[in-house]
Every structure is written in C-alpha cells, then in structure tokens.
Design a protein that fits this description.
alpha/beta; 3 domains; 4-stranded parallel beta sheet; 7 helices
Length: 210
C-alpha cells in the first residue's frame, strides 16, 4: 500500500475505532502491533493525510513521505498563509536534503499556539505539531493554557509555561517531541494523557480535575 493510502487507512481506523475489532485497548496498541519498527513513520504519514488536504494525492505520492513531512511543518507554521503550490514545486525539483534545509529556513514556526500575558486559552480536539520552540505556551504573568483531548507531536517542547504561567493537559497524546514539558511556570495534568517517545518528559503536576 502506498503511503498516501496508508495515511487515510490509519486515520479511518483511529476515527472509527476499528482497532476495537481486534480486541485491543487503544489505537496506540494497534500501531505498536502493526508497526513495531516504524511507529514514528506511521504517525508522520497520518499527519500528512490530515494536514495536506489541499495537495492532490498523486503529487504527494510523487514527492515522497519525507518531503511531505516537512510540508506539514511548514503548513502548520504558516497557517492560513500557507501557499502549497510553490512548496510542492520546490519539493519536486530539489534533492531531499536541500529541500529539508530550505523548509527549515523559510518555514520555521517558533510557537504553535500561545496564551498571552493575563489571558486564558483553551484548545480542544486539535493537533499541534511541528513548532520549533513550543507547541503550546503560556507566556507568563498569570496566563493559562488548557489542552484537552489534543495531539502534540514533533514540537521542540510540547507544552511550556513562563514565570507565573500555567498549562493544564488532559486526555491528550504527547509524543515525538524534544521534550514533553518545559519552562519556569507550572505544567499540570488531569485525567489520562499518553506521554511517550519524547526526548524527555519533563515534569507534570497531577491534579484531580480542571
């Protein structure tokens, strides 16, 4: 199966919870059994399917999953400003390493989502991925960010809080980041979150509810 079709299949399995048909406890367990040696690649392929919807599948297949992975990071950093056609042309024309270098220079987003000073931010059921510094950041000065049922993947640091800043994470997946948590403020967790395969997990203070 080609990687574009595989990405769609895996997303359908996750959304439809078809992994339950195999009497598995979670989608993560499904990935561990089906892709024991390339689980990270499977996660990348899923994010490609979810975030590069404006690019024709044939073109995605032609440029390959490694370059498409970089396009996801650029698309996430640029948001609504992402112009896919020039980037697809660059990916098609450039050697892989040259394209990766160019994407890091021209498409680097520092912070994915941030709560400014003296403000509250809530993120629900959303992916946050590919930010060079922090996926979600509470800047400090009594700012707070609540992350509920989200996926934080491939960021420098998944969640970060500045002095007198607060983050609250519940029911979320935090994986494949340089660090799961960081900063000088308070990072707390409630409910059940899946934190694994990060460079370091940092410290989350458990709380009973949010």
């Amino acid at each position: 199966m080609r990687y574009v079709g595989l990405g769609r299949y895996l997303c359908e399995v996750r959304i439809g919870q078809y992994w339950r048909l195999e009497r598995l406890k979670s989608f993560d367990e499904f990935l561990e059994r089906r892709f024991p040696e390339c689980r990270r690649k499977a996660c990348y392929i899923m994010t490609i399917h979810e975030h590069l919807t404006r690019i024709p599948k044939r073109e995605l297949q032609q440029i390959g999953w490694t370059k498409a992975r970089e396009l996801v990071r650029v698309a996430r950093a640029d948001g609504q400003r992402f112009d896919c056609a020039p980037w697809v042309h660059k990916a098609s024309a450039m050697p892989r390493e040259e394209f990766i270098d160019r994407s890091h220079v021209e498409g680097s987003g520092s912070i994915g989502v941030g709560a400014a000073a003296n403000s509250n931010l809530t993120i629900r059921q959303s992916p946050v991925l590919g930010s060079a510094a922090a996926g979600v950041q509470a800047e400090g000065a009594t700012s707070a960010a609540t992350i509920d049922n989200c996926e934080l993947l491939f960021n420098g640091t998944a969640v970060s809080s500045g002095t007198n800043g607060f983050t609250f994470v519940g029911g979320s997946k935090i994986a494949f980041n340089g660090a799961a948590s960081g900063g000088s403020g308070s990072n707390s967790s409630y409910g059940t979150s899946r934190i694994h395969t990060n460079g370091s997990n940092g410290t989350f203070t458990p709380i009973s509810q949010q």
